[in-house]
Write a structure and sequence with these properties.
Length: 164
């Protein structure tokens, strides 16, 4: 007699809909994120970065070469971003958050990047032209939205309105 086959558990992820896409895109509009990298020993490290958009819509940050995460991305461009903050009240796990698996790509300095960055981050005018600061873009390879209890989605760059 053959062994019984166990049914596959139902996926906890919902099919992305317009509301999920809008929520994720709203989180992407925030001016900062947590950046996870791998340090020189291969251990995970995390820091907060400013986040914006390059002309053409790519996710963008401005990083000092002196930062540990800049050195980590140079060694290994695989990284992750977390967007979303808990509200002042309630359980932090009920507030929406977006996790992005990414590949970091250094960008050549150009005036369009500088202008776009300063439009959203005017205080960066103090340091944007320092020689140790460089623009880095993030290519999203996978995305997961937790929109609150029971509202989990796998999303694509297209769902997020990002270039592939």
């Amino acid at each position: 007699m053959p062994e019984p086959v166990s049914p596959q558990p139902a996926s906890p992820f919902r099919t992305p809909d317009d509301a999920a896409r809008a929520l994720a895109r709203g989180l992407l509009a925030r001016p900062h994120a947590a950046l996870a990298t791998l340090d020189a020993t291969g251990a995970p490290a995390i820091s907060r970065i400013a986040l914006g958009r390059a002309p053409g819509g790519r996710l963008l940050t401005l990083i000092s070469d002196l930062a540990a995460h800049a050195q980590a991305l140079e060694r290994d461009p695989r990284c992750a971003l977390l967007l979303g903050e808990p509200g002042e009240r309630g359980d932090p796990l009920t507030h929406p958050r977006l996790s992005l698996s990414c590949t970091a790509e250094p960008l050549e300095r150009e005036e369009g990047l500088r202008a776009a960055w300063l439009a959203d981050h005017p205080k960066a005018k103090l340091y944007v032209d320092f020689a140790d600061f460089r623009f880095t873009a993030f290519r999203v390879t996978a995305a997961s939205l937790n929109g609150g209890f029971g509202k989990a989605y796998h999303l694509t760059a297209e769902d997020l309105g990002l270039p592939a």
